[in-house]
Amino acid sequence: MKSFFKIFLAAFLALVVFCIVGFFFFAGIMGSALSKSVPVVAEKSVLEIDLSKTFEERPVTDFQTVVASESLDEKPSFYDVIRLIEKAKHDENISGILLKANGNANGFANSDEIRNALLDFKRSKKFIISYADMMSQKAYSLANISDKIYVSPKGYFEWIGFGVNYMFLKGTLDKLEIKPQIFYAGKFKSATEPLRVEEMTDANRLQTSVWLNDIYNDFLIKTSEVRKIDTATLHQLANDGTIKTPQDAVAHKLIDGVKYNDELQDEIKSRLKVGADKKINFISIEKYGSANKDLSGDGDNIALIYATGSIVDGKGDADNIGSENYVDLLRKARLDKSIKAIVVRVNSGGGSALASENIWREMLLAKKQNLMVSFGDVAASGGYYISAAADSIFASKNTITGSIGVFGVVPDMSTFLRISWVLRSMV
């Protein structure tokens, strides 16, 4: 018994010490972050935007970022990124923008809006430079508007055309003797295809080809406009697999050169007209957001409601569209006499039919309050359904929308479970 208590007390003491040390560790980090004043945008600063980060419709505070950088700078929302780029256009302390273009984690529609904001920024005559070790096509779709585009000499530049991959599970389910009973309406309602067929149906192949070719053609046209290369040549370069290295991309005028990071910094210093031994004042879009918290304008009050994620019954959470929460939000907005209009930003592939119906009803009632809908990357199925009641719907050229239909899946697991029970009995 004495041995037990010794072990128990030692373990308890270790736990207490660990909690105390952990508390002071995190308190120190948070205190350090809180003690820092609002970031100051120094003269000749360069706004740095990392395209590999996802800019969510709502602002997000990333705890890992807080720990790593000892900063409470929250990642700006997608809409704030647009407004911060516009702010930088008129900010005398911002001399240019550096796009870190190793990848692009944002959808094609939202990327298009960021691209338009960058094009508007260029009217200020300030520079935009893009740099990457490995530049994807999706990152290039934004980077191609830059004054200069550079890739590391030993890096990679992607130019292979667009494609999609679908996974089909029917063969595996057949082997397991799991029988999904599927009910659906509409031949273009392809969400259940992975469970009921072993390859794409003609209807799904048609709709996928249409939206994929639309996005790819838009990419080629925009690249052609800024790089002064005809679309037929751009298309052929991808079909032939001509671009294998960054040097190939330079030779075909897709990018402006190959540079190491130190050479990139030398060019930026030259543009800023600072000494070679001076440090460049890079300011991330996160810190720039912290320095410019108030981005609101003047005029009438407009309610902005974000409808992002799957549509679900009940209250939902921050990652989806709960019908109860959104009905309440819409109702409060339409009953508030100080609000002159309601804008709903929809980025959803749909979800529950009943939840969509309840939100649609409240949208219909809110129509009396000047109701407008803005589509993000996706507004399909229920995402389109809830929007149909609006006065006006605005979509990006690359928004994927449509797919009105319904489906239900009731899995028949009887044979699979019987086999599993027999195997366990044999063991």
From TrEMBL:
<keyword id="KW-0720">Serine protease</keyword>
<feature type="domain" description="Peptidase S49">
    <location>
        <begin position="366"/>
        <end position="417"/>
    </location>
</feature>
<keyword id="KW-0645">Protease</keyword>
<keyword id="KW-0378">Hydrolase</keyword>
<dbReference type="InterPro" id="IPR047272">
    <property type="entry name" value="S49_SppA_C"/>
</dbReference>
<feature type="domain" description="Peptidase S49">
    <location>
        <begin position="121"/>
        <end position="274"/>
    </location>
</feature>
<dbReference type="Pfam" id="PF01343">
    <property type="entry name" value="Peptidase_S49"/>
</dbReference>
<protein>
    <submittedName>
        <fullName>S49 family peptidase</fullName>
    </submittedName>
</protein>
<dbReference type="InterPro" id="IPR047217">
    <property type="entry name" value="S49_SppA_67K_type_N"/>
</dbReference>
<dbReference type="InterPro" id="IPR002142">
    <property type="entry name" value="Peptidase_S49"/>
</dbReference>
<comment type="similarity">
    <text>Belongs to the peptidase S49 family.</text>
</comment>
<dbReference type="InterPro" id="IPR029045">
    <property type="entry name" value="ClpP/crotonase-like_dom_sf"/>
</dbReference>
